[in-house]
Amino acid sequence: MNNFDDFVNNLQEQIYDEAKDAYGEKGFQRWRNPKYNGQITSPDGHARITGECGDTMEIFLKFENNRVKQAAYFTDGCASSAICGSFAAELAVGRDPDELTDITGDAVLKEIGRLPASDQHCAGLAAATLQEALGNYMKEIK
Asked: What is the pLDDT at residue 69?
């Protein structure tokens, strides 16, 4: 390897080490291998919220037999927003509307394990978007 390759490899390792320190192992793995990212065509519940930080989060819910069969998120935000959206969608799958109301920002943070203090608002954004998507679903079925 040449000096440039060594530099790039060392820099990549440093970035990964810093990300593991910031997000913990679960958050780091989700950042590297996102789950539930994307959109659902014709969702039963959908919401889009822009947080105070400027990140926009979308949550899509598809229900079957009054339980979330499929959930997805999309964000234009930072890594923390993506991690939080992913975990919020994961927490939603298999739950009924009453159980979904228990998914708060704190519940998302607890599932991740750790986020930088400056990014913890992203969990609240993901949870608020999920709750609004649930609310939109409930309006449609009534």
From this structure: 98
53 close to 18: Cβ distance less than 8 angstroms: no
| CATH class of the region 3-141 | alpha beta
β-strand 45-50 against 67-75: which pairing, if any?
Answer: unpaired
Do 121 and 53 touch, CB atoms closer than 8 A? yes
pTM of the model: 0.92
**Where in the chain are the domains?**
3-141
Question: How many angstroms separate the Cα of 132 from the Cα of each of 67, 69, 86, 90, 105?
Answer: 16, 17, 16, 16, 13
Q: What is the pLDDT of residues 5-57, one digit of tens each?
A: 889 889 899 999 999 999 999 999 999 999 999 999 999 999 999 999 999 99
Contact 115, 83 (CB under 8 A): yes
